[in-house]
Amino acid sequence: MTEAELLTQLKEALAGSSEHTIGQFSSIIKRFYRFSGGNFTRSEVVGYIRKLERGGYAAGTRRLHFGVLKRAFQLAGVEWPFGRKPPAELPVSVAEWDVKAPPIALADLKLIINGAKDGAFPRDWTALIGLSSIYGLRRIELMELAPECMNLDNGTLRVVTAKHGRAREHLIPEVLKPYLTDYPFRKYSEFKLTQGYHLMREAVGLPYAYGEGFHGVRRTLVTALLYIFPEPIVSDFMRWKKSSMSMVRHYWTPSSPQVVERTVFGLEPFPAYGGELVYGKHPFLEFWG
Q: Which domain does 123 fall in, by range?
């Protein structure tokens, strides 16, 4: 694949992203392509990252380049040569080999939600963190939201699944509706969504947290729900198939530092919202009240 063909595919993949994002990705991919001579191999990636390090680039910048190169490999149709374990050729701080997004600290999530309620973010980002915290939507599910997916009059949300299976419906609790009004349904890229999450953290005074994002909110939600409900109810709420009960255990993170205190959830049920059983005790719905 030529450099021009690769950059054309990149622009198509990032359709809807800002010019800054497209320019940043394009610049990194062009630099790597010219460094490697168009050879997409493990050794070329290692050599490129080491060159950045010798050039004085900070670890955060090297991580950004590493992540963009992963996207470049996908676009070029070449298997990404790095797995879960950190490669011996690179420092652990450089790459993104922790495939599990870390859960979000409850105190941090509450601070972000309070910022959303106080108008610290644009309305679309307030809506996105609302949908993420209540339903645990993946980035691709947030990307696929369209005007016909949300009906505030009858209180329903239609979610196009990440794997393009049958769309699922959720009830929208009354307390969340004001924050979804006038949602502009912009088509953000996955990169833009992750970037926006970190901008929200920054806006409420939280430090940068490498690896965190909307999927970490999903992990925290599932973990929190499992402190309250038996696995079948959690599986039903997340709309997982009965054959996918292992998904519950996949998201369960009891060893995380964000262990849920009983006082966070309350010993008494929250007021019921939207008619769904889970909303009676949803761990984060109270944050939006």
A: 106-288
